[in-house]
Every structure is written in structure tokens, then in C-alpha cells.
Amino acid sequence: MQLKIWHKMIIGIAVPSFIAIMGGILTYGYINDVESRQGLVLITDDLKENIVEVSRHEKNFLYHKSKESLDNLHSTIAPLDNSINTIAQTFRLTGNEELPRFKNLIKTYLTNINKLYDNYLDEISITEHMMAESRQLEDLMSSDRGAAGLTTSYILNLRHLETNYMILRNRESFQKLEKKLAVLKVPNCEKCKSYVDAVDSLYKSYEAINLMESRIRGIGSELEKISAEIARSERLKISSFIKMSKRLLIAVLILLCTLGPLFVYRTAKYIVSPINKISEITKSIAEGNIDLRATVKDNDETSTLASSFNKMLDHMSLTHKSLEKSTELLTEKQAQLVDSEKRASLGLLVSGVAHELNNPLNNISVTAEILAEDRQDLSREELKGLNNILMQCERAKNIVDNLLDFARARKSTVMEKLDIVNVLKESFNLVSNQMRINNINLNQDIQDMAVFISANRSKLEQIFVSILTNAIQAMSGSGTLSVSLEPETDDNNVLIKISDTGSGIPEEDIKNIFEPFFTTKPLGKGTGLGLSVCKSLVMEHNGEINVESRLDQGTSFTIKFPLYEVSA
Predict the structure, then answer these.
(1) What pLDDT shows up at residue 494?
(2) What's the pLDDT score for residue 411?
(3) What is the 3-state secondary structure (H, E, C) of 508-555?
(4) Sign of the CA dihedral 204, 205, 208, 211?
């Protein structure tokens, strides 16, 4: 996925912001839960206070056993039941499992107090019945129709024990009363039997009431425990939420302090790194190195900048290369200009010297010829000396002629349309004797067709003869001379290649062979002007001459002339 710079900046800012927002949302959720739990704690505290109030009215009810106390107890339980129903959904959502049990206990509690009140009413009825039977028993005794053994003191003591039992309602008082009642269990005393049955019914009622009161007290204690447990559980959850919120805040702070700077650093690095790279390349370019290129990795603004920068460097490199070529060409042209100036200066000097030398040489030559013809009395040795003088004069004359050709002191002939194939073959004829004497084989690769160029015949022959003569001398008495001629119609040129199998030219000397007076021949066998004159004559014909050579493998001269073009 390719990201722009502003995408990277958004990511670098969004990630820490996302961490902060998520931490804030989670913390807000925990704080909201704490707030909800705080409300539940208040409700459970009210619930606990209501349970205490129920317990107080329960005691009043158990003590007074009246309708009023029962109604007060109901009025205390009713808000409690309503509160439980109101917060039931909230408790269910918080997952508290004590609430269903609490509600069931409330229902059981209400059922038991109602039953207890019914038992209280039954107790009153049974008590009244027992007291009525007791009064009948007293009436029976006062009418002297009582059973044997029933005295006034017995009856009074029985009524006293009866009163104690009704007040104390414990096992001991009942046992004392039951022991006293054993005397009444005599045959033929229906009133005595009715009284004993009434006491037994009262005892059973008391036992049932005591059991139910004990159960109610147990339910009340259980309600208090459950309400306290609910409040404690909610407080523990609040404490847990607070701890979790603290941990979450610490975790968010740690993430913001670590991931936040990390993302900002990475984002800044992604943005700045390509710019720094381009800056380093710019410094290298200022130092002269234009071959470096900026790397393009991401498809963002920096990559566009890097691409444009690379294109600019490519154009600069092309311009630099063009400038180098132009500089080389300018240097070459300057060297040619200097060489031309040198040649011109040297030509003026050589021209003057050559003309001055020609006159004494002619006089010496003419004098030697006259002496050789007129003096018949000269000895063989003297004639041999005169011939030697004539030969040396001729050699000196040739050197002067070469100097004049080099200096171009003589007038050039007019350029004309020539068949270069014909001129080349005539040049072969001029050096044929030398090839035969030196045992040189001629290998020709020349098409049997006319190839026309614009040239001067004598100068063209001088070029070919000079190069052919050098090749014959380089092969030292044997070898093969190869000559090829090939028109290049595409370039409108003709290419002549002259190769020998001689000793070759050292590599370090190749660059100097066209310099005036430079020669690789032994002292006295060359003037160093032949190839320099050839190059001047080739350039005069708008041509080119190049050389390739390797030691012990031979030398090849390549000459290129433009083909003849008919003027429009």
C-alpha cells in the first residue's frame, strides 16, 4: 500500500490519539460503572436500614401481638418490597445472585408473620377457652360438687401455675403445671378433663407460635445478612472498578509515552529520510559527483521529488557529457589550430631554407655532371666519387622536396574527378620493383569497378606510395602486403585499408607517428616527414587516416575519402 506524506502524518497522529480515545472510553465506562455501583450501594444501604426497621417492628409485633403492630410491620415491608422490585432489573444486569433469594425470603417472611398473627388469634381463643374452663372448675368446687381431692388451695395453686406458664411460656413452667394437672385426671370428672384438654391445646399453640417466631427471627437475620452481603459485594465491585480504572489509566499513559513517540519518530523518519538522502546527494553533486541517484521506494511526494531530482541529474549528466565531448573537440581543434600554426611557422622557415638549399645543390649537381662528362682523364675512383656526389645531391634534393611538400610551399594542383581504383593500381606499379626485390606478396581485395573521388593525382599517388613504401620496409625482406578498397554508400565514403605483416609499431609510439620528424626507423633511414605529409595531404582531401598496430603482428592504415559528388 502506497502512502502519501499526509497519510503518514495522519497515521502518526491518529495512532496515539486512538490509544488516548480508547483509554478514555474504557475509563469512562469503568467510571460510569462505578457511578452505577455507587447508586446500588446507596440502595443496598437503604435496604439494610429498611431491614433494621423491619426487625424493630418485628420485635414490636412479637411483643404486642396486635393488629396494629402487624400493620406497622406490613407498612415497613411494603416499601422494601417495592424497592426490591424497582432495582431488580439493575441487580439482574450487574449479575448479583443474592437478589432472587432475598425476594423469596421476603415472601416467606410475609407468609410467616401472617400465619403467626393467625396463631396469635388462635392463642387468644384457646386462652379464653382455658380460662373459661378454669372458672367452671372453680364454680364446681364452690358448689361442693367437686371431685375428691380438689381443694381451694389446690385450685389457687393451679391458677398460679397457669398464670406463670402463660407469662413465661417455657418448658419448666409447663412441666410444673402438667405435674399439678395430674391430680385432675380422675374418672367421672368431665370438667377436669375439659380443663386439661384446654391446657394441652394452649401448650400446642405456644409451641407452634414459638417455632414460627423462631423461624421469623431466622428469616429476619438472614435478610440482614443478605442485605449486608449485597452492600459489601457492591462496595468490592466499586473498589475493583476503581483499581481497574487506575490500571487502565496507567496502561494508557505507558502506551502514549512509548508508542506515541515511536509512531511520531517513525513517521518523521519516513518523511525526513528521503529528504536527507536528496540533501546528501546534493552535497555530493556540489563536490562534483553527479553519478548518484535518489532511491524511490514509496509512492508519495518525496518519491515524486526524488524522480524529478533524478531526471534533473540525468539531464545534468547528459549536459556534462556533452560539455566533456565539446571540451575534447575544442581541445582537439585547438591542438589542430596550434599544429597548423606550428606547421605554418615551420613551413615558412622550411620554405626559405629549402629555396636557399636548392640553389647550391643544383650548382653542385651541375658541376659534378659537367666534370663527369668533360674530364676524360678522371680515374675510376674519381668518377665513383663524382657519382656519389650526384647521388647525395639527389638525396638532398628529395629531402628538400619533402620539406617543401610538408610546408606546402609549392602551388597545389587543381582537384579533379579521379578513379581512385586506377590511382591505387598505378601506385602498385610504382613500388612493384621494391616488392619484387624484398620478396613481398601483394594481396588485393579491390572490386573491378570505378570509384570516383575529388582529388589531386600526384598528391594521391604520394599518399599511397609513401604508405606502401613504409609497409615494404617494415616487413624486412619478406611478407604479405594486403590492400582492400570498399565503397560505403551509406556514409558516401570510400575506405582503403593497407596492411602489412611487419614488426609493428610499439603502442606508446602510435600517437606520435603523424608528428613531423618522428620516425621509428634506424638513424639515417628516415626523415620523419613521410606520414606527417601523408596526413596533411589526406586532410587536404577532406579525408581521415587512422592506424592500428601490434608488435610482431603488423600494421594497418585505414584511409577514408568522400565519394565524388556532382554539384547541383
Answers:
(1) 92
(2) 46
(3) HHHCCCCCCCCCCCCCCCCCCCHHHHHHHHHHHCCCEEEEEEECCCEE
(4) negative
